[in-house]
Structures are given as structure tokens and as C-alpha cells.
Write a structure and sequence with these properties.
heterodimer, A: 612 residues, alpha+beta, seven-stranded mixed β-sheet, 19 helices, disordered C terminus, B: 290 residues, mainly alpha, 12 helices, elongated
């Protein structure tokens, strides 16, 4: 009975040192105690740790003494029987005991070898010392983080948005679909450069509603899906010519825009989106207009528009729509105020006479109680319309008749009044009156002596009694230069001496002079009418009382002052009076925007010879 | 020039060169270039008056974006340059100096490019990543300015290898000195031996303050077991544990300083790569939904 114990250790140079010793007897002690048969120098090993007890020629029992388990062929146990011929590996703490039958020595061989490091610091020897002091072992690899992060970014912010675009199916949304908006979150939201304007907020989740095709800039077709009634500012072809920049920088930027598939002149060039709730072009910068209009004549020689770049320093004189042919189908033509145009409205109407504070008209107005002192004022005839921006049309019934009575006779206690606006009817009325035996003229149809117009009858009847004649005389008197009709109207006729086919010129009163501009009277209530309109001095009904640009410039100095300093400087960019889309005048002033009234254009706008 | 050949001046110059950090390379050359660039860009921004507002999609916005993107790619190339021997005129120091100063100028270029508009989108993501890269770079410059002296002060005359060797030697001595001990005392020493001075993960590396570790516990434990341990073994173990304690503390301080010196790169480099990915997504998105 014997054990053959081989102790294997490594020299400093790594060479294996093997020392063998024969222990006679059937029992071998194992422990940290130096007196043990097998000394295991490991602090996890107790001083007397285990024993090997031989139980047969080749058999032995391995037994733990202190209840500390060991492993036999990988299984943890406190006692195991081993057949030495079959061999076994016993592990105690950092030591490996290989048990094998030694045929030559006829003994149980036990090879003892350390496999673990004594201390953690010794285990470090296996690690690369250069890496040991770095973060390489304790932090995830930088390379891994870099590729992982990059991949994550590309997946979330490139692949997902593109997938959203592909899934949208390139279909063009209808106006209803656009208005409704699509529910759910789309990956391409992460591409949004900023919030949409409030009007388009519903489209926030539907990028493809406007961005219809990949790598193709937003086109007007997308806008026109909903905006079906917006008019062009000008003929697109002319606009393209006018927009063409003449500076090197401008040409370069245009070329770049073309190269990047971004044609100029699209809706979105001005109506930029993704800029937040209130960043649409409502009041564009003046340069925006001046880019084309500063030298439009050069680019579009056929244009009738004057070059302009600033209201204060470079704006042509106003060209109001001037009536050049009155009648049922009147013709207006834009004419510069420089030409001192006159217009035949069909009326004979001296403003000065009506606005005098001292003449007969004034006294009449006082007598009628229309004014307490002085004469008539503008508001006596011109009534602001509902929104206050313009005026209601002047009518005979409302504005003239209180003074200019059309009563001509009394019969059977009834006052007879000429039918206004219908010449043939009026003639017939007079004929009937005289044909039926006449009556009492309340006032002469000629020699118009209105002592008290308006409340005419009773006081006048007495003085006029006895005047009589034929219907023809009365009619002639009515149309005579000092007759009732000719007092206000231009009369033509008769066609031959003795005939009674008098005609009254058609009355055409323009109610809107500026075709492409917008003037709001409400914004000017601090001013008297007369500070702009020269009505008190106008002796001729044909005068055009639209004030010229010089008048406006007493306050309106252009966008940046335009080099003129005035009493009340009002910065006035183009958009203060003009709008880009010409059918949308309502947008011109904030006040008008609030009130969505129906805009009444001049009755004859259709025949305005627009010089655009 | 006469003054140039003056020996005194030459001495001063060479002395300056010796101590010149990469930041003040060539008398702040790149700091000056970057500042001038920023000033010009800010002036143009101030006088540019795009409609409706300054942003990335104006002419100037695109210009800034292109400059910024090209600059970012060039700055990233430092990582490639560092790994190559210098064949040309650019010294690594000059390159690093330009990297730092032009990198800082990206704060101006990038911010002007945004027109000060931000949102929850890929565009702002790219901006945020860029700022994170710059911030981590600034942190890196800060620690490179402050820490190396502390590092060398802490290390004393020891090299890293010597520190490691010292620890292994102490462990070996502890191991053999503890052989006669009973199981309780042996377990205390074993715990000290088993403890990895390099272990504990990233947070432990960066954490400051003295560590309560197995070695200090072993010191306390042995003191309580005074009667059970032979006096000579006790003396030896106490001495060894005391030495190990101070060496481990020194090593942990060293590791902490090195970790701080290195950690910014774990933000700087991966974030740079993520930034380039975000920039690609940003540019593609702009042209995709054009």
C-alpha cells in the first residue's frame, strides 16, 4: 500500500519542476499545515483539509475533514470513492490532484499541480498590461459605440422616414383628405424643419401632401389642390422674365437653384412653410416687389407700368381709373393724374358751390336745419359704407332730393313729382298734367327760383299762381339751360327745332378709382376730407378729386423714409396699398381682413382698360 | 532682419517653442484664424437680411451648412492622421491646434446655420450631437491641461509596470505569510488577494475618495484576532497589509485620473461618428423633401 505524490510547480522562467515522493501506508493527509503529506499552499485550504484512504488494491476514498466540499471530475462533493485505474481529477481550492494507478511502482499516483493564480494581481499577468490601465476593459468598445450609434441614427432618421415616404404610396391627396389630415405618427416627421403655419397645421403628419415626389421641390400643383381660386399676380411667362436677376450673384443663385431642381417663381418661394405659425408672407419686404418693379420697363418694354422701388422716392404718379365714356357700358381708362384728367360723369356739379359756408346753398342748408352754421359738409352727401373703408353710391333720392325737389304741380291737393331717372316718363307726366287741364304749378320748371327747396309747396304756390302755358312750353322750360333738369344734368336735344325729344346724359359715378391699390378711409379719420380732396375749390364737375402722390407723401415716406422727411412719417411699404394676388384686395389692410365683406368693384371694372 | 539673428531672441524663441502647447501653436495661429473666421461669419449674418427669417435654407444658410459639414469631415480626419506617420508639412501638433480652434469655431458656424431655430427633428439632432462633440472636446482639453501633473504627482517615481509588480510582490508575500493562519484569518487575507484592484467597472474607476476594500477589512479583522495569531506572523501581515493598502490607494487614484483623461474620448469619438450619420440624414432629408 503506497501513494506516489508528484508535486508540479513552475520555475521563474516557466520551466516545469516535478518532485516525486513515495508515502507508504493507506492514508494520506491533505492540508495547508506544513506537516501534511500533501501540502496545498492556498489560503482557502484549511490546515487539515482532507484525506485519501485506500480501500482496495486500486481503490481509495477522498474525504473532506472540515466539511469544505471539493470537486471530483467536476462534481462537488465531500466524499467520493475513486478507482485509481480509471483515474480521477480532484480539485481543492486552487489545486488539481490527478489520481492515476502507477503500474510500475504498484502505487496510487497523485499529481499535485496549482492551476489558479495565488492572487488577483497575479491573474493580471495574463492580461495585456497596456490595456490594463485603460478603460478598454471596463467600458464598451468605442468602435462598437460609434458604429452602433451611427447605425441607430441612420435607422431612425434616414431609413424610417424613407419607409414612411414609400408607404405613403405617392398618392396625391384630395383637398378633403388634406383638410382632414392623417392620424398617427410618421417617421418622416423627424425631417420637418419646423412647425407649419396654423392654416396648414393639419398637414403636419402628411409630408407627402406637399412633398409629392422625392428629390423634387414642392410644386404649385400641390398648392392648387386646395387653393383653386388664387389668381396669378401676372402672366407667369412675364413674371419669369421680370424675375430674372441681372446681377452676377442673382444669376449664380438662379443657376444653383436650377441645378438643384428648384425652379423660381413657385408659390412656396414666397409662401414659405416650416417657419412657425406666423411667418407666411403677409406683408412682404419691399425688396421683394422692387426686385421686379424697380426696372420693369427694361425687362418688359411693353409694360405700361411705371418703374418703382419705393413709395417715397420712386413711385409713379397715381393712375386712377378715369371715366372716359359714360353710359350704359362705360369705359374707364387708367390715366396718370399728371395728365390732369377730366371726366364726364354726366352731372353738372360744382363742389365749391355746395361746400361754401356763406353762399345761398349754405343758407339754404341752414334754413332746412341741415347745418347749424356754415355750409354743407362732405358727409352731407357722402355716406361711409358698412365697413367704413369706402362710400355708398350717391343717389338722387338720398343725397340730392332734399334740396333739389322735383315737385312741379298740385292738383286735387296732390303734389306731382317728376319721375327721376326716366326722361320719357317725366315728359309724359308733364304732358298729362297739362293735358288734363293743368293745376297749380308749385314752382316754375324754368327760372328755377328756389326760395325754400325741400319743404317747398305751400309758401311757393301763391306766388306762382297764374303762371300757365302749354305742356310743350313747360317741357322746354324743364330742359332749358336754367331748367330743373339742366341744373344738375347735361342735356342734349332736341333733335330738331320744336321737337321735345330731349336726352339727359347718362350719369356714371365711379366708386373705385384704384384698380390695383387699396385705400382705406378709416385709416385716415384723423384728417379732414379737404386736406386731401380739393373739393372746396373745385368749380367743375369734371374735376377728378383724387389726390396726387405728392399729397400722400406728406405723411407716407416709403418703406425706409425714402430720403424725405415729413411732418408725420408713416413708413409705407408696397404692401400697405398693394396686394400681390390682385383679386384679393381684402387682404390689403388688416381691417379688411377682419371684415370679410363683399368687395364691390367699380360697376364697370370689366371694361377698365387695364394697362397691365 | 538684424533682430532675428540676435542670439537672445533666438534663445527666447526656442524656449517658447519648447514649452508651447498645441493650443498656442505658432503664437496662437489657429486661434486667430478661427476667431477671424467667426467674426466674418457673424458680420455677414448681421448684415444679411433674408426673407422671412435667417435659417439653414437661405443662400447664406446653405453656405454655412456646407462649410460646417466640410469642416466636420476634416476635423474627423484627425483620427486618421493620428494613426499615420507624418509625411508632409503638417505636424501633428499643428493639426491638433487647428482641430481644436476650428472645432470651436463650429459653435458659431453651426449656430448661425440654424438661425437660432430648434425643434425635435433630425436637424436639431445633428446640432445637438455637434455641440456634444465640442463639449466633450473642451472637457478633453481641460483634463489634458490639468491632470497630467496630478497624474505624475500621484505616481511618484513609479511606472505603471512597477506599481503592478509591487502589488504582485506584496500579494505573494501576503500569501506565504498567511500560510500558518487559521481559516478565519486566512479567509480575510484570501479576500484581499482575490480583490482585483482594476475591477469594479467604469463607475468605480471614476469614483473619487478612499475605498473601503478587502485589504482594509483584513487589517481590521486581524487586529480583532490578536490572540489567535502568532505575534511574529501578525507583525509581518500588518506591515504587508499596510503597504498593500497604500499601494492600492495610489493605484486607484492613478486609474481614476487615467479614466478621466480618457473618458471624454468615449463621448467624443462615438458621438462624432453618430454626428456624421445624423449629418448624412440631415442633408439627405433636405434634398429628399425638397
Amino acid at each position: 500500500m503506497a501513494f506516489l505524490i508528484h508535486a508540479v510547480s513552475a520555475s521563474a522562467t516557466g520551466r516545469e519542476i516535478r518532485r516525486s515522493r513515495r508515502v507508504e501506508g493507506e492514508r494520506v493527509s491533505i492540508g495547508r499545515d506544513p506537516g501534511s503529506d500533501i501540502v496545498l499552499t492556498d489560503l482557502e485550504v484549511t490546515l487539515e483539509h482532507a484525506t485519501l484512504v485506500q480501500t482496495g488494491p486500486h481503490r481509495l476514498i477522498v474525504r473532506s475533514l472540515k466539511g469544505v466540499p471539493f470537486t471530483v471530475d467536476g462534481r462537488s462533493t465531500q466524499e467520493a470513492e475513486v478507482d485509481a485505474r480509471a483515474g480521477a481529477e480532484v480539485r481543492i481550492a486552487g489545486f488539481r490532484l490527478e489520481i492515476a494507478w502507477d503500474e510500475a511502482e504498484q502505487a496510487i499516483g497523485v499529481t499535485v499541480e496549482r492551476f489558479g493564480a495565488v492572487a488577483a494581481s497575479a491573474a493580471d499577468e495574463e492580461r495585456d498590461e497596456r490595456q490594463l490601465f485603460t478603460l478598454a476593459g471596463v467600458a464598451p468598445s468605442r468602435r462598437l459605440m460609434a458604429w452602433g450609434g451611427a447605425l441607430l441614427v441612420l435607422l431612425l432618421f434616414l431609413a424610417w422616414p424613407i419607409a414612411s415616404y414609400v408607404n405613403a404610396g405617392h398618392k396625391t391627396l384630395t383637398a378633403e383628405q388634406m383638410a382632414a389630415g392623417t392620424a398617427g405618427f410618421h417617421g418622416d416627421r423627424s425631417w420637418s424643419a419646423g412647425p407649419l403655419s396654423s392654416a396648414h397645421a393639419g398637414l403636419t403628419n402628411d409630408c407627402t401632401a406637399c412633398h409629392a415626389k422625392a428629390f423634387v421641390s414642392v410644386r404649385d400643383e400641390s398648392c392648387k389642390t386646395c387653393h383653386t381660386t388664387v389668381h396669378d399676380h401676372a402672366d407667369p411667362e412675364k413674371l419669369r422674365v421680370a424675375l430674372a436677376p441681372d446681377t452676377i450673384g442673382g444669376k449664380l443663385s438662379l443657376a444653383v437653384a436650377h441645378a438643384f431642381n428648384r425652379p423660381a417663381g413657385r408659390c412656396v418661394d414666397c409662401h414659405t412653410e416650416h417657419k412657425g405659425n406666423d411667418t407666411r408672407i403677409a406683408v412682404p419686404n419691399q425688396k421683394f416687389c422692387a426686385d421686379c418693379h424697380a426696372d420693369l420697363k427694361e425687362k418688359l418694354p411693353e409694360t405700361k407700368l411705371g418703374d418703382t422701388k419705393d413709395f417715397g422716392s420712386g413711385h409713379p404718379e397715381f393712375q386712377p381709373a378715369i371715366l372716359i365714356k359714360p353710359g350704359d357700358q362705360p369705359i374707364f381708362q387708367r390715366t396718370s393724374l399728371d395728365a390732369h384728367p377730366k371726366q364726364e360723369t354726366g352731372l353738372i356739379f360744382p363742389h365749391d358751390l355746395h361746400l361754401s359756408a356763406t353762399n345761398g346753398v349754405a343758407r339754404m342748408a341752414q334754413a332746412l336745419g341741415q347745418v347749424k352754421s356754415g355750409g354743407l359738409d362732405c358727409a352731407g352727401c357722402h355716406t361711409p359704407n358698412r365697413n367704413g373703408a369706402g362710400f355708398l353710391p350717391v343717389t338722387m333720392e338720398k343725397d340730392c332730393q332734399s334740396c333739389h325737389s322735383l315737385a312741379f304741380g298740385r292738383r286735387d291737393g296732390q303734389i306731382r313729382t317728376l319721375r327721376h331717372g326716366e326722361v320719357d316718363q317725366a315728359i309724359a307726366q308733364v304732358r298729362d298734367f297739362y293735358g288734363a287741364g293743368g293745376g297749380t304749378p308749385v314752382q316754375p320748371l324754368a327760372g328755377y327760383m328756389r326760395k325754400r327747396p325741400g319743404d317747398f309747396a305751400a309758401a311757393q304756390v301763391a306766388s306762382l299762381q297764374g303762371i300757365s302755358g302749354t305742356a310743350g312750353q313747360a317741357i322746354r322750360a324743364m330742359f332749358a339751360p336754367d331748367g330743373t333738369c339742366a341744373d344738375c344734368h347735361r342735356i342734349t336735344g332736341p333733335s330738331r327745332p320744336g321737337a321735345l325729344d330731349y336726352k339727359i346724359a347718362a350719369v356714371t359715378l365711379p366708386d373705385h378709382y384704384f384698380v390695383n391699390g387699396w385705400f382705406d378711409h378709416r385709416a385716415h379719420t384723423t384728417e379732414d376730407c379737404a386736406s386731401c380732396h380739393a373739393a372746396p375749390k373745385s368749380k367743375d364737375a369734371r374735376d377728378v378729386l383724387i389726390p396726387g402722390i405728392a399729397n400722400c407723401r406728406t405723411c407716407h415716406v416709403g418703406e425706409n423714409g425714402g430720403g424725405i422727411a415729413k411732418k408725420a412719417q408713416v413708413a409705407s411699404g408696397c404692401a400697405m396699398c398693394h396686394v400681390y394676388h390682385k383679386d384679393d384686395r381684402r387682404a390689403a389692410t388688416a381691417a379688411n381682413r377682419e371684415e370679410k365683406r363683399k368687395f364691390t368693384q367699380p360697376s364697370a371694372t370689366t371694361s377698365v382698360r387695364n394697362s397691365e | 532682419m538684424a533682430s532675428r539673428s540676435s542670439p537672445r531672441k533666438q534663445v527666447r524663441r526656442s524656449a517658447a517653442l519648447l514649452h508651447e502647447s498645441f493650443l498656442r501653436h505658432r503664437n496662437w495661429r489657429w486661434a486667430k484664424i478661427a476667431s477671424a473666421l467667426c467674426l466674418v461669419l457673424i458680420l455677414i449674418y448681421a448684415f444679411d437680411n433674408p426673407v422671412p427669417r435667417p435659417e439653414g435654407d437661405t443662400v447664406y444658410g446653405y453656405t454655412l451648412g456646407t462649410i460646417g459639414f466640410a469642416l466636420i469631415l476634416w476635423l474627423t480626419a484627425l483620427g486618421i492622421r493620428k494613426r499615420r506617420m507624418s509625411p508632409g508639412v503638417w505636424s501633428l501638433k499643428a493639426w491638433t491646434s487647428a482641430h481644436v480652434w476650428l472645432g470651436l469655431s463650429l459653435i458659431v458656424i453651426g449656430t448661425l446655420h440654424t438661425g437660432f431655430h430648434f425643434g425635435w427633428n433630425v436637424h436639431t439632432l445633428a446640432y445637438a450631437l455637434m455641440m456634444l462633440v465640442i463639449a466633450s472636446g473642451l472637457f478633453g482639453i481641460g483634463v489634458y491641461a490639468a491632470l497630467p501633473s496630478k497624474l505624475s504627482e500621484n505616481r511618484g517615481e513609479l511606472t505603471e509596470t512597477q506599481m503592478l509588480e509591487g502589488l504582485r510582490s506584496l500579494d505573494r508575500q501576503l500569501h506565504s505569510a498567511a500560510q500558518p493562519l487559521g481559516p478565519r484569518a486566512a479567509a480575510l487575507i484570501q479576500a484581499s488577494l482575490d480583490e482585483d484592484a482594476f475591477g469594479g467597472g467604469l463607475r468605480a474607476r471614476l469614483r473619487s475618495g478612499a475605498l473601503e476594500n478587502a485589504t482594509t477589512e483584513a487589517e481590521h479583522g486581524l487586529r480583532e484576532m490578536k490572540g489567535e495569531i502568532p505575534p511574529d506572523a501578525m507583525e509581518r501581515l500588518k506591515a504587508l497589509l499596510g503597504q498593500k493598502h497604500s499601494l492600492v490607494a495610489q493605484l486607484r487614484r492613478h486609474l481614476r485620473l487615467r479614466a478621466i483623461l480618457e473618458i471624454w474620448l468615449y463621448v467624443h469619438v462615438p458621438t462624432t461618428i453618430a454626428l456624421i450619420a445624423a449629418l448624412i440624414a440631415h442633408v439627405v432629408s433636405v434634398f429628399f423633401y425638397w
